[in-house]
Structures are given as C-alpha cells and as structure tokens.
Amino acid sequence: MDNNSSAEELLSIIADYEGLVVRSQTKVTPEVLAAAKNLKVIGRAGVGVDNIDKESANQHGVIVMNTPTGNTISTAEHAFTLMLSAARNIAPGHRSVLAGEFKAGRKANQGIEMHGKRLAVIGMGRIGTEFVKRAQAFNMNVVAFDPFLTQSRADELKVELAETPEIALTGADVVTLHVPLNEGTQGIINAERLALMNQGALVVNCARGGLVDEVALKAAIDSGHISGCGLDVFTEEPPSADHPLLSLDKFVAFTPHLGASTAEAQENVGIQVAEQVRDFLATGEIRNAINMPSLDASARAEIGPYLDLSASLGKLLAKLAPANPDSLRVSYHGPLAKKDTSLISRTTLTNYLEASRGDGQVNIVNAPGIAAEMGLELVESTIHAKTEYNELVVVELRKGDERFRLAGSLIGSSPRIVEIDKLYVDTNIKGHFLIVRNDDRPGIVGALGTKLGEAAINIANLSLARNKTEGNALTVIELDEPLSAQLMEELRAIPGVIQSTGVSL
C-alpha cells in the first residue's frame, strides 16, 4: 500500500485482498482489519510495526511480518554517522562556515576522538553487531548488554559481555541503542544510568524514540556530565519546536528518522517483504513473523511430517476427548524435543479448536487467543522416560481429574498414530476411521465387519489393542468412505460395543 494512500481508500478495497504490504505511514487499524475479510498476511517493509494493530491482527488471524534485515547496514551506518557527527561538531561547524565565522568556528568546535573510547552497546542484534564492527575498526573498546547474547557469541564478536545495563554503562564514553521499544526498554537510558557514564560521554539513538529519557538527557548535558547526543528518533515525532534538546548547540546531531532511508535499504526491504508475502501465500512458508513462530523452507521440510501428525492428533482429540478441558499438553520425546516445536504445538491447538468449535474462524494465528478466552491452557513439555519410539509426540487433554491422551510418531518417513488413550495402535493420520471401544470377547470385530460389508464399505486397514485389566479392547478401522449417521447407530447397537465414533482426518 502506498504511503500516500488514505485510510478511506484502504478501507474501501481491503476486503478483496489476501495480502497487504505497507511501509511506515499506512495505518492498519482495527477498522481496516475488521473490513479485511480475506486478509491472511500483512508485510511491513521495514522493522517497526507500530503502525499495525497487532492485537487486532491476532484476533482476526492475520500474520504480521516485518523485514528486520533489509535496512541493517543503512541503520548501522547512520547511527555511526550520528556518533561521529556529534563527536566532531559537524552541525555547528557547518553553521559557522555558512555564517562566515570560519576562524571562530574552528576554535569553538573542537571535537573528540573515538579511538580508544569505551563504547556501550545496548542490544546486539543485527544492527548492533554491524555497529560494533565499525567501532572496532576505529579501535573502540566495546562492552555489550543484551539478555540474549551468550558468552560464546560475545567472545566471537570480541566484545565484553555485561550482565546488566548498569555494568555496560559504567565508565562508558559512548552509548548506542539498538533495541525495540517495549515495557522493559522504555526509558532504559535514564538519569541514574547517565550518571554512570564518563564525564563528557555521548548518547546515540537510532532505534526507537522513548528509549531515552529526553528530559534527563537534557539535564545531564546542561550539567556538563554528558557532552551531547546524536538522535535520529524522538519520543514524539516530529518533536515540538520547544523540545528541550533542540536548543542545544555543540556536540549534537539530529536527523528526522532517517536510519533506514537509503535507496539501497528501501529497495531491499521492498523486495524482501514482497518475497515473504508471496512465499507465505504460495507455499505457507513463514519468515520474520512477529505474532507466530517462523517456518522457512528448510524447517518446513524437517518438521512438515510432524505438522501433519499434530493436525490429525488435534482433530482426533476433539472427537474422542472430554469437552471443555482445562489444559492441552503437548509433549515431545527424542531428537524432536531439541528442535523448536512451538509451531507443532500451535498446530495441535489450532486443529483441536477448529474441530471442537466447528465455526471455521480458528487459525494458527488466533488460536492461542481463542484458547485463552476459553480458559484452555496450552502447555509444552519434554518426555524423558524411555519409549518404544525414537521420536514421539504425545497430546493430552485434562479436565479436572480426567485425562485423555493420544500419541504419534514417524514410522520410517510415514507419520502414524500409535496410541489412543494408553492403548497401542498403528494407523494412518489421514482418512476415514471407525474407532470402537468394545468388550474384550470374541465376535465383536466380526460383527463390525459384517455391518460394514452389508453397507458396501470397504476396510482399508484395521488395528486392535486390548486392555486386559479392564476387560475391554480398542478397534480402529480405516475405511474407504465416511459412515452415515444411520450406520453409526447400527454399529453402536451391536452387543458388546461400549463406544463408537466415526471420524474423518
């Protein structure tokens, strides 16, 4: 959607589209999402998704993607430029030349070198890492804070790892910010943390407005403790004419949110977001989604059979397990447990809700929200006990003291259902099935087969399991076609049949 398009224009056409691509100016509001009856995915050409109502997108089951890598270099370069510009008084020096004050400007605008200075980097994602590479080329000493940065990765990048922002900022000559804006990072640079930096330090922010307490920064500059700043973003944009920082003269560099504004970056993010939206709509590949797990082509090939398996397990749970459960637990055993299984668990939940509710409004994006509204908790766990299978997926519904579980695995490369309520079976995950709980005595399977034969329904596969302790058995019959309601009633009337369920997976 073009940045110049009006909200009214978007509302008038959005109902016809399955995909929407926007940049920073187009607002995707709850009203737009409510009107987007066919919308499946929104692609943001850029990093920030502040212009997209993510909660409403979740409710409507719309995937939101961004392009975090397309403007990495441009933003890192811009932040580095702001640091150097502030350190060398580029802006006031420029003004002095234009004002004809060449000699006076030369004397007044003496700067500071970056060589040997201690740099604190808050956020070591792609952009922070690129900034560090450039800083090291200037022989700066780098200390980094990022809760997701491991010691081994810090060693690889040749940076000192700080456990807290306070440790990173203590004795720093420059701080640069490369983190998103959220509850944990709002005002991460405040008066107390500015006081930890060296006398004459600089603050650089090319990430998000609101990360820096601008009032505290102005006070620290006025006191002389902080020399200045380089800012591309502000808490309110555009900043008001009486914004306190705009009155500063020396050691400052301000730009109007230009971090991603290079021809190369704009082209890169445009191409990247178009490819992501295309691939999702064409193949289901999910990259850089911010409201659900991503699934690239290689990962899909690796876990694809388990997605099919979990979908069938979820549907079968809806047919066999108690209604209105308290929780759905998905457990993993074997090498699979070491992989990212979040999408497998969500697929199980989605198919369970879709089959049990039958309203067609559930999808993989909004399923967690719908489950929360129902009071249904989704739990993931790992199975450490030995099993007969190299890899195993166990799904269990809990309702009070009641438990009902299913399990599946790959037999070779074929996904199979291998357990129904603690009884071992072996059956396909797709097809039409008759699942019967019956007394464990002769003749019942024969009676079931006779009824099916009379109805001219062919049996494709049959699996039997016995519960000798309770004196009953489980019969799973795969059929060539679904069963009519009348035939189901006749099957349930067979002596010895305790429970009979027809299900298509």
Structural notes for this entry:
With 505 residues, the chain is α/β, with parallel strands linked by helices. The protein has 4 domains: 7-70 and 264-283, 3-Layer(aba) Sandwich (Rossmann fold); 73-254, 3-Layer(aba) Sandwich (Rossmann fold); 295-427, 60s Ribosomal Protein L30, Chain: A (2-Layer Sandwich), CATH 3.30.1330; 431-505, Alpha-Beta Plaits, CATH 3.30.70. Helix content is 35%, strand content 23%. It has 17 helices and 20 strands. The chain has helices spanning 7-13, 30-35, 54-59, 72-87, 90-98, 102-108, 126-137, 151-157, 165-169, 191-194, 214-223, 263-283, 297-320, 342-357, 367-374, 444-454, 485-492, and strands spanning 19-22, 41-44, 63-65, 118-122, 141-145, 160-162, 174-177, 201-205, 226-231, 252-254, 327-333, 377-382, 392-399, 402-411, 414-420, 423-427, 432-439, 459-467, 472-479, 497-504. The strands form 4 sheets. It has a 7-stranded parallel beta sheet with strand order 6-5-4-7-8-9-10, with helices on both faces. Strands 12-11-13-14-15-16 form a 6-stranded mixed beta sheet, with helices on one face. A 4-stranded antiparallel beta sheet has the order 18-19-17-20, sandwiched between helices. β2 (41-44), α3 and β3 (63-65) form a beta-alpha-beta unit. α5 runs antiparallel to α6 and α13 runs parallel beside α14. The longest helix has 24 residues, at 297-320. The protein is elongated and about 110 Å long. The two termini are 39 Å apart. The mean pLDDT is 93.
How big a fraction of the residues is strand?
A: 15-25%
Q: What proportion of the residues is helical, as a percent range? A: 25-40%
- The total count of helices amounts to 17
**Radius of gyration, rounded?**
30 Å
Q: Based on the coordinates given, report the CATH architecture of the largest domain.
A: 3-Layer(aba) Sandwich
Could you name the CATH class of the largest domain? Alpha Beta
User: Can you tell me the CATH superfamily of the largest domain?
Assistant: NAD(P)-binding Rossmann-like Domain
Q: Write out the strand line-up for the largest beta sheet, numbering strands in chain order.
A: 6-5-4-7-8-9-10
